[in-house]
Amino acid sequence: MKWNPFARAKRAAPVMPEGVIVFAMGDVHGRADLLELMLQYITHQARSMEGRRVLLIGLGDYIDRGPKSRQVVDHLLALRIAKNLEVHYLRGNHERIFLDFLVDPARNGPSWRQYGGREALASYGVLAPEANDDEAAWLAARDALQAALPPAHLAFFEQLETSFELGDYFFAHAGAKPGAPLNAQLEEDLLWIRGPFLTDRRPFEKVVVHGHSPGTEVHIDDRRIGLDTGAYATGVLSAVRLEGADRQLIQTHRDENGRHVLRAAPI
Predict the structure, then answer these.
(1) CATH 3.60.21.10: which residues of the chain?
(2) Which of 3, 189, 227, 258 is the most exposed place for a label (fewest CB within 10 A)?
(3) Phi and psi of 260, rounded to 5°?
(4) Is the pTM of this model over 0.85?
């Protein structure tokens, strides 16, 4: 993918409070290889910033589609003991579907399989049933997943936050409903909204940083920053570093020789 820091020109930049540095990361979707290098960079940066509040905000959709959902969760859990790094993991619609599958596999399994659940199940050593109407097979798959799912992983999925805000920024997986205050958003919109949020031009109280709607380039304008660059398909995982009024785009990908590389540039 051609390197292009942003798809649209930015306007007046919002700010983070003094002494605060935020790394916000887009949809991983099972690409543990891209995530590993990103987290190495962020933790290295955090260790060098003693005396400042450093946060990592994951924007959801850590699982499905890509091949290594289980390994992605392992990486994210390990980060909770990183030095000088505060982590906030938000729920994406794919994590919501994961939990729904555990409750009602016959109803939710077929659609989940279609949208990446097959790969997520495989990462836990479970085969997805082929028949949509085979209720017994879906119940067996759910039971096998529960048996393979480490307790820390279940707690991870259950304890994900739906939104987070700091300074002049609001973080959510999908975005926010136009016309509604950010502090009154419904979880359904925070996890699923797309068209109305992307096309409406009304500003929010804060700049919304989100994933969910993939593009080949990061989107930045006066009302939103979209960080989903379709990592599972494009091989590019994107994040943004926010400090004061400054912004930096960070991306990991594989180069032409198959090596994982990271690039960072002001935006």
Answers:
(1) 21-92+162-266
(2) 258
(3) -80, 130
(4) yes
pLDDT confidence of residue 6: 44
Q: How confident is the model at residue 27 (pLDDT cuts 50, 70, 90)?
A: very high
Looking only at the bridges linking them, the beta strands covering 207-210 and 169-172 are parallel
CA pair distance 107, 104, nearest whole angstrom:
6
- Token pair listed for 14: 């919002």
Question: How far is residue 196 from each of residues 130, 179, 190, 217, measured CA to CA in Å?
Answer: 35, 10, 12, 20
Tell me the C-alpha to C-alpha distance, in Å, between residue 18 and each of 12, 51, 242, 246.
Answer: 18, 12, 11, 12
DSSP 123: H
Asked whether the beta carbons of 227 and 240 are under 8 A apart, the reply is: yes
* Residue whose token pair is 């850590």: 62
Instruction: Output the CATH code of domain 21-92+162-266.
Output: 3.60.21.10
| Residue written as token pair 């887009």 | 26
207 three-state secondary structure: strand
For residue 20, give every residue at least 6 positions away whose Cβ sits within 8 Å of its Cβ, in sequence order, or none.
52, 53, 54, 55, 166, 167, 243
Q: Minimal CA–CA distance to 226: which of 172, 264, 182? A: 172
Kind of pairing between the strands at 224-226 and 207-210: parallel
How does pLDDT run across 84-121, given as a tens digit for each residue? Answer: 999 999 999 999 999 999 999 999 999 999 999 999 99
Angle at which helices 151-158 and 69-78 cross, to 10° = 80
Strand order in the sheet with 163-166: 163-166, 169-172, 207-210, 224-226, 219-220
